[in-house]
């Protein structure tokens, strides 16, 4: 069989080009640390890497959402701690107000204290978060949820829960509404405080002594119920914060698993790659020498 000079050239050049291409691919893998530069390098592994990367991205987004949820709940918990302390101080003041030896003037001092507490509680109920949204307004986050009036304060927010997807299987409420916290079950803390202020500012006489005593007892009962309700809301928030911590642990474990899977799929075996690079270099040098030697042959060398 005759082999033309052109065929010899083309065969040699093709062989060297393939070796150079393989050499470039190995050098690229070594420089990036990844064995898959394009999907064509390993279609099956590329598809699997894409799937794992997508799952890893979703897991990271859930982690970001949990961080937002944690911030909101911590802000709420901090605010409710202040509410709790104020209500405890109201209980203490009302116990003192029931002292039969107190004068009208002394009860008036307590009334002034309760009026200040009422204003403070309304202020806490109208607190904004770091983003400027009202904590207790439901979805009406741009509107102050409570408006002070002669009977205490009226709620103008709504009862909607702000839900965040903190995990693939879990949506979590990250707010508490004003009616849920301060007016639960018809027990209006603000109305109770306003009634107590009015009661303590009314001069005490034998004729209204019984009504005064009953009013103090009713007020204490209402404040205790309101305090219990606030503590219940705080317990719920604490439970959600604990759940977020647990979900973070699970999310971190998933993150490690995804990273390990991606590493196993994509990362380069440097020892094998360097060995292949050296072997490929040797073969290419030999091919180049062989090509030069072959293409320089002539029949005149054998005459």
UniProtKB/TrEMBL annotation:
One of its GO terms (cellular component) is bacterial-type flagellum hook. Keywords: Bacterial flagellum, Cell projection, Cilium, Flagellum. InterPro entries: Flagell_FlgL, Flagellin, Flagellin_N. GO terms for biological process: bacterial-type flagellum-dependent cell motility. It comes from the Bacteria. The keyword rRNA-binding does not apply. Pfam families: Flagellin_N. GO terms for molecular function: structural molecule activity. Residues 3-140 form the Flagellin N-terminal domain. It is found in: Bacterial flagellum; Secreted. Belongs to the bacterial flagellin family. This is Flagellar hook-associated protein 3. It comes from Methylotenera mobilis.
């Amino acid at each position: 069989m005759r082999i033309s000079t052109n065929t010899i050239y083309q065969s040699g050049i093709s062989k060297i080009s393939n070796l150079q291409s393989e050499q470039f691919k190995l050098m690229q893998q070594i420089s990036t640390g990844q064995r898959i530069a394009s999907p064509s390098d390993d279609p099956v592994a590329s598809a699997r890497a894409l799937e794992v990367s997508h799952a890893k991205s979703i897991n990271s987004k859930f982690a970001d959402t949990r961080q937002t949820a944690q911030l909101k709940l911590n802000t709420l918990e901090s605010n409710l701690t202040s509410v709790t302390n104020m209500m405890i101080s109201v209980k203490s003041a009302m116990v003192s107000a029931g002292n039969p030896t107190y004068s009208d003037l002394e009860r008036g001092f307590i009334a002034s204290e309760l009026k200040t507490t009422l204003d403070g509680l309304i202020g806490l109920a109208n607190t904004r978060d770091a983003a400027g949204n009202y904590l207790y307004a439901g979805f009406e986050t741009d509107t102050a949820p409570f408006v002070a009036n002669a009977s205490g304060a009226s709620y103008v927010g709504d009862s909607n829960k702000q839900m965040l997807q903190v995990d693939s299987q879990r949506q979590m409420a990250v707010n508490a509404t004003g009616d849920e916290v301060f007016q639960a079950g018809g027990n209006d803390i603000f109305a109770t405080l306003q009634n107590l202020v009015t009661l303590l500012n009314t001069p005490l006489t034998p004729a209204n002594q019984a009504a005064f005593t009953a009013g103090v007892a009713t007020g204490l009962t209402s404040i205790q119920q309101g305090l219990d309700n606030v503590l219940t809301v705080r317990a719920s928030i604490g439970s959600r914060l604990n759940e977020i911590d647990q979900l973070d642990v699970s999310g971190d474990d998933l993150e490690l698993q995804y990273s390990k899977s991606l590493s196993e799929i994509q990362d380069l075996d440097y020892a094998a790659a360097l060995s292949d690079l050296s072997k490929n270099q040797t073969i290419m040098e030999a091919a180049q020498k062989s090509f030069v030697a072959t293409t320089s042959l002539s029949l005149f060398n054998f005459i």
